[in-house]
User: Fold this.
Amino acid sequence: MKASELFFPTLREVPSEAEVLSHQLLLRAGFIRKATAGVYSYLPLASRVLKKIMNIVREEMDRAGGQEVILPIVQPAELWKKSGRWEVYGDEMFRLKDRHNRDFALGPTHEEIITTLVDADVHSYRHLPLLLYQIQNKYRDEIRPRFGLMRGREFIMKDLYSFDIDEEGLDVSYHKMYEAYNRIFQRLKLQYRVVEADSGAIGGNESHEFMVLAENGEAEIVYCENCDYGANTEKAVCSLEEPKAAEEEQLEREKVHTPGQRTIQDLLDYMNIPKEKQIKTLIYYADEELVAALVRGDRELNEIKFKNVLGCNQLFMADEAAVKQLCGAGFGSLGPVGLPLKTYIDLEVSQMKNFACGANEDDYHFINVNLGRDFTPAGINDIRNAVTGDSCPVCSAPLYSMRGIEVGHIFKLGTKYSEVLEANYLDQKGREKPMVMGCYGIGISRTMAAAAEQGADENGIVWPLPIAPFEVIIVPVNSKNEEQMQAAWSLYEEFKQEGLETIIDDRDERAGVKFKDADLIGIPLRITIGPRSLQEKQVEIKKRTAKDVELVPLDAVSSRVKLMLKEMSK
Ligand code: ATP
Ligand code: MG
Assistant:
């Protein structure tokens, strides 16, 4: 490909709307352009990267026994009403009407469509298991589309659905996908971790997420270096350490005047009460009912765990006005003593003695509050986020935390959809049974962004070789110098013959501009042809990630390049 003909409109300035590096770089390097919030056009370089990711995904899905289909994006509301998700999906679903005023959705996911499809044409155990997948656009009207391709409203996903006769069958399919996903992210040459995940609204029980490690990742994970345990902090089990304060004697409760002191930090500064000796009281609406959650002062409530404990459909923070009316105090002065709400406490709180909390009266706190004597909880559960230093629930070693980008997610669905959508089959004895399902997604466009995020340096993107848009870029230093250009063109022809994916930068630009662009778009190998190439018959080869260049005789370049690419793909 000639750079002069390639459509890659690079930008010198950092686009102001882009917060994370990958988003900035994909815009600057001319890979993507925004159409509207969360909706992007993919330009030629991006299209090449996406195709390579899709090819690897496709190969691994096929190898695992998947069969590719293409399912409709426009989906009738009836199917979603039947599964009950027309309401549950809420505002995240893009909805539209046809000319007859009938309701439709743009597919955010495809359980409804595929389960109905399989139900219509698969009736016997003989035709199971069945693994069907597709790669296409998904539509989700995300509340906060951001970070470019990371959280789009239109994005590319690979989704596979497995149909089995029983749980054991599902275990086999799930394991196949687990393995296939590992192969995929290894082949993509990304640093990632597999973690236990919360299966959220999709339901089911077992679920794993594949996280590309990156400081700017939206998700936080904890992992153990001693064993294999890893989990999304949404899900990570916080096991109870040995009670440390058990021996402490209960002191008499006191009410103290704390004018203007509203936060945990305030109370630390004002009265020197350590955060571990305070508790946070958080008030939520669990569906219609107001409830309270208590965690230690230095911990974060985990809303997902709390929601699971309560078993409610919706959980959201109460507004201060409602809280004040019912509890007698604003957010900064709440506590469990005399609180007229069901109060749920974190496991850790159950071990605390003589702690400080709001007195349900503005500008007052209690100190030396104790469980049992001063209040009775409605439940004692693990409802906080795990943090670095917590002990591993498997082997008790200390856990570490880091951030990641969720690129893949696999779930066991069980019979959740097959039952409501009546996807049954006849077993060997002619009995009707619901199929047992799993679903498995990879965010293709998000994976591209995650790769750009993970590899980037101060000069631009560093694509892993297997998904780089081109493998090699040839840069003649002076495009006005005919000899240099001739040497560059003949090398380019040779590379083409060899099947190397090559760009030749034939633009009439200064060498500095060409080098900057080559770095920015992240081509793994750069070959520079300058005056020395002609005098000494040598060219410079530089890896995108290396500081130094290697000098190679002109007639040995293509074999050297092939060898380097081979090594880089190992
Ligand atoms: P998230 O928690 O990030 O919203 P999810 O759990 O809703 O993700 P799934 O429904 O499991 O996502 O979708 C499968 C995969 O699709 C995800 O692992 C992710 O890689 C990708 N994905 C989901 N939502 C988006 C989005 N808005 N933009 C880009 N990719 C997405
Ligand atoms: Mg989501």
Notes: The radius of gyration is 29 Å. Confidence is low (pLDDT under 50) at residues 199-204.
